[in-house]
Design a protein that fits this description.
With 403 residues, the chain is of the alpha/beta class. The protein is built from 15 helices and twelve strands. The radius of gyration is 21 Å and the shape is globular. Bound molecules: glutamic acid (GLU).
Length: 403
């Protein structure tokens, strides 16, 4: 088989690969603790499930308009007004099959071969590959824990070339949990305003935020930024609805129309039943989020404290999302590290470390290299307190063997 050059540039998603590996081992009866996929361990709230059931019972089981039913588009415009003080008309929003699909569609309509997309690193594993699949070129701006995993206006300015089409802002971030303040976004907007580039704001973790941090979107900075920004969001993380596959985006009506063209020629509408569930999620009772947030916050505090007491680890407290991204450069300097490399050889140290933790600690974590930095790995703490406690004990015991 001759494959397209585009697919040959793309690798399988490491987050999904680690999750699948953990599931396989569990199916074989091996007791693995999964810190892989970023998927809330909570069930989808009852009132949302009920809305889906009544959609089925009332025959809402056929095709819908490609970009979603008008009631959902309306609910999304209300959400933007309610939560983000952003006004959109229904023709400025569209619904896709998950947040990932929103970004995929956007890359498809935006990029010509060789067009560049600026992606701050560490990044979510799929951004670069979706840009590559569309013929684009991902351009990375490196950040680290010392800089709070945030890009500076200077870095952004230096990364922009005549081929730059867009910059991705994912705040709070997957995998670092780092979030930009309004002032930081203003400083980035000053650079963006002087160019023709489009900010892509991936707000999927918007509601998962701690210590009273106030979420802002770069579209909040000015009318010009609102005019230019494409906002991506979805119900997966906020409402524990990962399997329902509903993402959405907002932006210029011309762009939205093109998104619906690509979607009309590929997936057609997102699942009808899921759309009705999403209407209830977005416009129904929002108090259900509070108990999830309390649990995430408790786990965040516990896990950061634990990780910082493991030899060779240093972990920044994330402002949002349900990930921690510990720096493990110190582990690579421990006396036992050579043996890890010998037993689990890999081009990348973070992959060797994660293979070691899978084998020796029976914990599934995602190597930092998948997110663009080999000095880290990612833990999703969207799992039970018991799992986290046990997982930390196992990781600690495995790493202490290297001291
Ligand atoms: N976005 C989630 C994660 O990073 C789900 C898996 C994926 O699509 O990457 O774990």
């Amino acid at each position: 088989m001759i494959f397209s050059e585009r697919i040959l540039k793309v690798k399988p998603s490491p987050t999904l690969a680690v999750t699948a590996m953990a599931a396989q081992l569990k199916a074989k009866g091996i007791d693995v603790i999964g810190f892989g996929a970023g998927e809330p361990d909570f069930d989808t709230p009852e009132h949302i499930k009920d809305a889906a059931i009544s959609a089925i019972k009332s025959g809402k089981t056929k095709y819908t308009p490609v970009g979603g039913v008008p009631e959902l588009k309306k609910a999304i415009t209300m959400k933007f007004k309610r939560d983000n003080s952003l006004e959109y008309s229904p023709d400025e929003v569209t619904v896709n099959c998950g947040g990932k699909h929103s970004f995929y569609n956007l890359m498809q309509i935006m990029l010509n071969d060789g067009d560049e997309v600026i992606i701050p690193a560490p990044y979510w594993v799929s951004y670069p590959d979706m840009a590559l699949l569309a013929g684009g070129v991902p351009v990375f701006i490196n950040t680290d824990d010392a800089s709070g995993f945030k890009i500076t206006p200077e870095q952004l300015k230096n990364a922009i070339t005549p081929r730059t089409r867009a910059v991705v802002i994912n705040s709070p971030s997957n995998p670092t949990g780092s979030a930009y303040t309004l002032d930081e976004l203003k400083a980035l907007a000053e650079v963006i305003e002087k160019t023709g580039i489009i900010p892509i704001s991936d707000d999927i973790y918007e509601t998962i935020i701690y210590d009273g941090f106030k979420f802002f979107n770069i579209a909040n900075v000015s009318d010009e930024m609102k005019r230019r920004t494409i906002v991506l969001n979805g119900v997966s993380k906020t409402y524990a609805m990962t399997g329902w596959r509903i993402g959405y985006m907002a932006g210029n009506a011309e762009i939205i129309k093109k998104i619906e063209t690509v979607q009309g020629q590929s997936t057609s509408n997102p699942a009808t039943i899921s759309q009705y569930a999403a209407i209830e999620a977005i416009s129904g009772d929002q108090t259900v989020l509070a108990h999830m947030l309390i649990a995430f916050d408790r786990r965040r505090n516990f896990i950061v404290k634990e990780l910082n007491s493991i030899p060779g680890f240093s972990c920044r407290m994330p402002e949002g999302a349900f990930y921690v991204f510990p720096n493990v450069d110190g582990v690579y300097k421990l006396p036992g590290w050579k043996k890890v490399i010998e037993k689990y050889p890999d081009k990348y140290k973070s992959s060797s470390l994660c293979a070691y933790l899978m084998e020796e600690a029976r914990t599934a974590v995602v190597p930092g290299i998948g997110f663009g930095d080999d000095n880290y790995f990612r833990i999703s703490f969207a799992t039970s307190d018991e799992n986290i406690k046990e997982g930390m004990n196992r990781i600690r015991a495995a790493v202490e063997k290297l001291v």
